[in-house]
Amino acid sequence: MTPLGRKNHLFVGSEADGKAAAIAYTLIETVKLNGGDPQAWLADTLAGIPAHKITKVDELLPWH
């Protein structure tokens, strides 16, 4: 881990919080790599979750 990473992740809280943060960062960076707007993708995804079928959760991923 780089010194910047250690500083940024110092106050994550717990191991579970660190894993959740890593997942969120990964999804946001994936949206960027696919040419999307992370804020718009996150807003659309969070708004659509309640009405979305659990069997089609892969449709919510950034590359769709």
- Shape field: globular
**Count of extended strands:** 0
How does the helix and strand content classify structurally?
A: mainly alpha
What is the distance, rounded to the nearest whole angstrom, between the alpha carbons of the first and last residues?
31 Å
Q: How many alpha or pi helices?
A: 3
Q: What share of the residues lie within helices? A: 55-70%
Radius of gyration: 14 Å
The proportion of residues in beta strands is: under 5%
Mean pLDDT comes to 80
Order of helices and strands: HHH
Largest sheet, described in full? none
Query: Uncertain runs with pLDDT below 50, 5 residues or more?
Result: none
Which features characterize this protein?
mainly alpha, globular, about 60 residues
Question: Could you please describe the fold and organization of this structure?
Answer:
- This protein has helices at residues 3-9, 15-33, 38-48.
- It is mainly alpha-helical and 64 residues long.
- The chain has a domain at 38-64.
- Helix 2 (15-33) packs across helix 3 (38-48).
- The longest helix has 19 residues, at 15-33.
- The radius of gyration is 14 Å and the shape is globular.
- Residues 26-63 form the Transposase IS66 C-terminal domain.
